[in-house]
Specification:
Blueprint (H helix, E strand, L loop, with lengths): L1 H26 L2 H7 L5 H25 L13 H24 L2 H8 L2 H8 L10 H19 L11 H21 L10 H19 L7 H28 L2 H7 L2 H12 L7 H17 L1 H6 L1
Helix pairs in contact: 1-10, 1-11, 1-12, 2-10, 3-9, 3-10, 4-5, 4-8, 4-9, 5-7, 5-8, 6-7, 6-8, 6-11, 7-11, 7-12, 7-13, 11-13
Length: 303
C-alpha cells in the first residue's frame, strides 16, 4: 500500500511539474509578441496585458459560479501576506526588470535578471523536505551558462560602473521572482485562482507607473492582436500554471527548466526571420536541455 501511495504521489508531482513547465513554453513567446506590440512602452504594456489577464480570470470565475462554484470574488479573499507576496512577485519583478533595461545595456541586464532560475534551485533547499544535491547545482549552472550564451550572443558581459544602478535593479528582479516562487510553495493551500487578483493589482500599479514615467503610445491593429496574445498567454495563463507548478511540482526541476525560455524564444525569433542561427545557439541548446535533465534527476528516478 505504501508503494502505491508513493507512486501516486510521484505521479502527481510529475504532473504538477509538467503543468508548471507550460509557463516556460508561454514565456518563450514573450520576446516575439512584445516586439510585435511596439511602440507601446513597457509599463503601459504591463497595464494592458495584466488587465486582460484579470478580466479573463473574472470570466473564468463567473463561468464556474454559473456551474455551482464559488462566488465570483471569493477568490480575492486571501490573507494579507498572500496578497503582499503575490503583488510583490508579479509587479516587483516587472518593475525592477523594466527599470534595469532602462538604465543598463539590455544584454547585461537580461543576463543578471536571468539568475532567478538558479536562485530558485538554491533557495529551494530552505524548504521543508527539499534537499540540494550536486546535480541540482550543476544543472542550474549549465542552464545559466547556456542562457548567457543566448543573451550575450557569445560576446560576454562588460560591466561598467555607470550602469551600477541598472545592474542592481536586475539583481533585485532576479531575487524578487525567485523568492516569490519559493515562498509560494509555503502557501500550497491557496488556490492558483488567487493569481487573478494579483494580476488586477499589478495592472493598476502598471498604469500608475506608466502615467508617472512614460508617454502613452498605442499599437496598430496587428499590435493589438499581440497585446491580446500577451495577456492571454505569457502574461496571463503562464502565471497561473507556474503558481500551480511551484506549489505542487518539483521546484528545482522547474527552476532549471526555466532556462529553456530564452532558448525557445531565440528559436522562435529565428523561425520568424528576426534572428540568425549559429553555433552559439546550438551549444546553448545542449547546455540548457542537459542542465534541465540533470536537475530533474530526483523526479525522473522516482518516476
Amino acid at each position: 500500500a505504501e508503494t502505491v501511495v508513493s507512486k501516486s504521489g510521484a505521479g502527481r508531482r510529475l504532473r504538477a511539474t509538467a503543468i508548471g513547465g507550460i509557463a516556460v513554453l508561454l514565456w518563450a513567446t514573450l520576446a516575439l509578441l512584445t516586439t510585435a506590440a511596439q511602440p507601446v512602452p513597457p509599463f503601459q504594456l504591463m497595464a494592458l496585458t495584466f488587465g486582460i489577464a484579470f478580466l479573463l480570470a473574472v470570466g473564468k470565475w463567473m463561468i464556474a459560479r454559473s456551474r455551482g462554484g464559488l462566488p465570483v470574488f471569493s477568490h480575492l479573499r486571501q490573507p494579507g501576506r498572500v496578497w503582499a507576496l503575490g503583488v510583490a512577485g508579479l509587479f516587483g519583478y516587472h518593475f525592477f526588470y523594466f527599470t534595469a533595461l532602462g538604465i543598463a545595456p539590455p544584454a547585461d541586464a537580461s543576463l543578471i535578471a536571468f539568475l532567478w532560475p538558479l536562485l530558485i534551485v538554491l533557495l529551494s533547499a530552505l524548504l521543508p523536505s527539499e534537499r540540494l544535491r550536486w546535480w541540482h547545482l550543476a544543472g542550474g549552472g549549465a542552464g545559466l551558462v547556456g542562457a548567457g550564451l543566448l543573451v550575450t550572443r557569445g560576446g560576454g558581459m562588460a560591466l561598467r560602473p555607470e550602469f551600477i544602478s541598472g545592474y542592481l535593479a536586475a539583481l533585485a528582479c532576479a531575487f524578487t521572482w525567485s523568492i516569490y516562487s519559493v515562498i509560494s510553495r509555503r502557501f500550497g493551500e491557496v488556490p492558483s485562482d488567487a493569481v487573478g487578483g494579483f494580476c488586477g493589482v499589478t495592472a493598476v500599479l502598471g498604469l500608475i507607473s506608466h502615467l508617472l514615467f512614460e508617454q502613452t503610445l498605442w499599437p496598430d491593429a496587428s499590435g493589438w492582436l499581440a497585446v491580446m496574445a500577451l495577456g492571454i498567454g505569457p502574461v496571463g495563463a503562464a502565471f497561473f500554471v507556474w503558481d500551480y507548478g511551484v506549489k505542487h511540482g518539483d521546484i528545482k526541476a522547474l527552476g532549471a527548466l526555466a532556462y529553456a525560455a530564452p532558448l525557445l524564444s531565440t528559436l522562435l525569433l529565428i523561425a520568424f526571420g528576426r534572428a540568425e542561427a549559429n553555433w552559439t545557439i546550438a551549444l546553448a541548446c545542449i547546455l540548457i536541455v542537459g542542465g534541465a535533465v540533470l536537475a530533474s534527476g530526483d523526479m525522473l528516478r522516482r518516476r
